[in-house]
Design a protein that fits this description.
Helices cover 62% and strands 0% of the residues. It is built from 19 helices and no strands.
Length: 447
């Protein structure tokens, strides 16, 4: 039975040209809201206006996702999806990050590495780096007592950008270009899978993705791009897939979630290549971070933010350290179950990443972009709603007195995670009921 959606009949309200105009109108609305967000004063100081405009942007996005099936045969749909994605990101490029200061850390460590110092050995407060301290970047570097946490390929990217232009705008542009390349890769991957360009809207137009990567400048797309390429090439270009996986894992550690699903599909040559490149790189990274000021050690042992499940794991076992290992065990268990059930590399990776985001001790809003990058495989209402509610972790309407040290109270986190959970359950029950009705109708008609 064909899985290709039928073309709309001429003369109906769902004509291809009408669908294209609707897609363009929704994208234009999204871009205009991004432009308004870019004109706001610092978002951390105007949290209420930021969150109100974010909600409006999400309305345009949600409508585009819900009505996505209408756009498959729209003329130039891939071009519209990509053009809106680019315009929305460029609108936010001039924004000075205020909800997160990670971007300043990227610029600082890039300068340190580009000038021949070791950012894994020397924390920003190290006396050896005193001559590099300036009045623009250094005062905004977070945790200056800790040395770098970022894997080697991230550091190489920071150094490359800093060597050309050690500025916030240059580093943001580096991240945004990777993000746009990721959108292009998703369009190509979905076309190869027989899906239309409209499914890529789930990532490409998501306000959370736009705000966190183009607005706040987080560098996650520099690794997410490699992860998507590794998944896309796993069967047809296994050697390229193995190299892409290694590049992703050495940029951020999250692509390691894909390893069991990829390695099962790679031939031996690709397996050995991925193991050698990734293993050597991660060993070097681990050795570089074995210093008293290690940011990696601090992250593993003490970091907590915006967690819910982890809160109860820690309460149950009575130890945060034990809870971290328990959470890691749960993630491995989810991956094992998905693997045993024969999940595809894309679906297995998505399940594992989702488990890590929900059970881990740290769930910054920009982390959810990792799950959203795989939503084109089959958008989930609950996860898309979470991309809206997770901005509660910055506060609710009024800037918190704690500033960047704010941690949402448990009741707020229940709203943040509970509403998407309720929606996900409701949609699952509705789909199950529809399937049951379909089977009953087939039985009555004798089909």
């Amino acid at each position: 039975m064909s899985t290709v959606a039928p073309r709309p009949e001429p003369g109906t309200s769902d004509t291809p040209i009408g669908s294209a105009l609707e897609l363009l109108a929704l994208g234009t609305g999204l871009v205009l809201v991004m432009g308004l967000l870019a004109r706001l004063p610092p978002w951390s100081a105007e949290l209420g206006r930021f969150q109100a405009l974010y909600l409006v942007a999400f309305a345009f996005y949600a409508l585009a996702v819900v009505r996505a099936g209408r756009f498959r045969f729209a003329p130039s749909a891939p071009a519209i999806v990509l053009a809106v994605a680019a315009a929305a990101r460029l609108a936010l490029l001039p924004v000075t990050p205020s909800l997160s200061d990670d971007l300043y850390r990227y610029v600082w460590e890039g300068r340190v590495a580009a000038l021949g110092f070791d950012p894994y050995r020397f924390a920003p407060l190290a006396p050896e780096l005193a001559p590099l301290r300036d009045a623009v970047i250094f005062p905004r570097v977070n945790h200056p007592e800790l040395s770098s946490i970022y894997p080697p390929f991230s550091m190489a990217g920071f150094a490359l950008v800093a060597a050309l232009s050690p500025t916030v705008i240059a580093m943001k542009l580096w991240n945004v270009l990777h993000d746009l390349a990721l959108v292009g890769a998703l369009l190509a991957w979905m076309r190869r899978k027989g899906l239309g360009p409209e499914v890529v809207i789930a990532y490409a137009w998501c306000p959370l993705v736009l705000v966190e990567y183009a607005g706040n400048g987080h560098n996650d797309p520099t690794a997410m791009l490699w992860l998507v390429l590794a998944l896309m090439w796993v069967d047809r270009r296994p050697t390229a897939s193995a190299l892409a996986f290694a590049a992703g894992a050495l940029t951020k550690l999250a692509p390691l979630a894909a390893l069991p699903f990829l390695i099962a599909r790679w031939p031996w040559r690709a397996r050995l290549l991925a193991a050698g490149a990734t293993g050597a790189g991660l060993l070097a990274y681990w050795r570089l971070t074995r210093v008293p000021s290690s940011g990696l050690d601090a992250y593993w042992h003490t970091w907590r933010n915006n967690d819910l499940v982890f809160h109860y794991l820690a309460a149950a076992v009575g130890s945060e350290t034990a809870a971290r290992w328990l959470a890691a065990g749960i993630v491995c268990g989810v991956a094992l179950v998905a693997f045993a059930r024969g999940a595809s590399p894309g679906d297995g990776t998505r399940s594992t990443l989702r488990a890590a985001l929900l059970t881990g001790p740290v769930a910054h809003p920009w982390y959810f972009g990792w799950a959203l990058a795989l939503e084109p495989l089959g958008p989930s209402g609950g996860w898309l709603l979470l991309s809206l509610t997770c901005v509660l972790s910055y506060g609710f309407l009024v800037p918190p007195a704690e500033g960047g040290s704010f941690h949402a109270p448990l009741s707020w986190r229940w709203i943040e995670y509970g509403a998407p959970l309720a929606l996900g359950v409701a949609l699952a029950l509705w789909a199950r009921r529809r399937r049951g009705s379909g089977r009953e109708a087939a039985r009555l008609t004798g089909r």
